[in-house]
Amino acid sequence: MARDKMTYDSYERDIFDNPPKGPVGVHRGPRPVMARIAPFLIVILVAALCGVGAWLVVSGEYKVILGQENTSQVASGDSSSKSDAADASSDGSTANKDSSSSGTSTDGTGSSDANQSDQSDSTNSTNADANADQNAQQSQPASTVNKATQVLVINATGIQGYAGQKSDVLQTSGYTSVSASNPSGGTLPGYTVVWYQNETDKATAEDVASTLGISAVEQVQGLSTPITVVLLN
């Protein structure tokens, strides 16, 4: 019973019964205004967003918004397709221009090459003709004056001894085989002429004509002598 009657005063006082003076418990300073109202603002914003979302779903406005987005995407796709088509058309026109200019250049080059080829062929043909003429001249025996060639002088003037006089002139100039004769039939020319049979006798016939003062020199086949002088008035 004595133990039950003991109270706070029954114990002796110690240091814990006389604490130092000062604030009791944890002390915190005042919080800023924004920190105090921020939770309310967040709750209000979330509530507003939820309300707007619910209104869009209920009213069907979200379909209109999605439709506009699809329309803008389609328009953007069409624009990009048109741009690609324009680029392709531009590339095609550029390629056609390049092809046309290349074709024109090729045609011009081909025409120039054809002209050059024709000129080359013409030059080659001219050179071939010249070479052929030179070869023909070289293949023919060279004509030189041969005063030992037989020369027949025919007197068709009616002047007696006229052929002998011309024969003497030829012999005086160095001819060693000269004979004189009168016409013995056949066709005579209408002018004084020196005939020769072969091409090798041409130079000799020209020398005979020059010695006798005769201007006409002709080649005739079937002569009895290599060179025949026909004297006419």
Structure description:
It is a single chain. A five-stranded mixed beta sheet has the order 2-1-5-3-4, covered by helices on one side. The chain has a domain at 151-231: Alpha-Beta Plaits, CATH 3.30.70.2390. The model is unreliable at 99-111 (pLDDT under 50). The longest helix is centred in the middle third of the chain and has 79 residues, at 61-139. β3 (193-196), α4 (202-212) and β4 (217-219) form a beta-alpha-beta unit. It has 233 residues and is of the alpha/beta class. The protein has helices spanning 33-59, 61-139, 162-172, 202-212, and strands spanning 151-155, 178-181, 193-196, 217-219, 227-231.
Q: Which helices and strands, and how do they pair?
A:
Layout (H helix, E strand, L loop, with lengths): L32 H27 L1 H79 L11 E5 L6 H11 L5 E4 L11 E4 L5 H11 L4 E3 L7 E5 L2
Parallel strand pairs: 1-2, 1-5, 3-4
Antiparallel strand pairs: 3-5
